[in-house]
Amino acid sequence: MKVLFNKLEAKDSGSKSEALMFLSNLCxxxxxxxxxxxxxxxxxxxxxxxxxxxxxxxxxxxCHCLNTxxxxxxxxxxxxxxxxxxxxxxxxxxxxxxSLELKKxxxxxxxxxxxxxxxxxxxMPHDDPTNPIIKQIMSASGYKNLEELLNHPDQEIFENARMxxxxxxxxxxxxxxxxxxx
Length: 182
Fold this sequence. Notes:
Blueprint: H1 2-8, H2 13-28, H3 32-40, H4 43-53, H5 56-72, H6 75-84, H7 87-92, H8 100-123, H9 132-139, H10 143-148, H11 155-181
């Protein structure tokens, strides 16, 4: 784990990409204990920091790593990730200056976060009917980037942006409005 930590702190993006790919492969293994160890050591936090500060390639690799944890992790493990506050970083990665691949994997992460947030929110006692991940997305400074993707020429990007807005975000706020008016 120490070697991975050092590579994630390296100056060159090649070492960071290598560490991120290795970390993603570790996270793919269906082993809850190993994944918990990766979270506890701070490797996931270190990796997700590159979503905002890495090169385009590092950001893509860090998003793949995050996406793997979102898909494989338990609700408790994913809850730790929502505290890292990657939403703003993912939303910023949807800006026009970033690669198609980064936009695609950032959208996957956002969709997975919303889905996990929905599960987590339904299992925890709360007064607010709104998924907290959706609230974070709506208040993110990069929300305009998501809206701009609704006109994107790439079909996958367009479809995922449309699904996020039309099928996940909009119904959540519509149902919240209905509940508040009752």
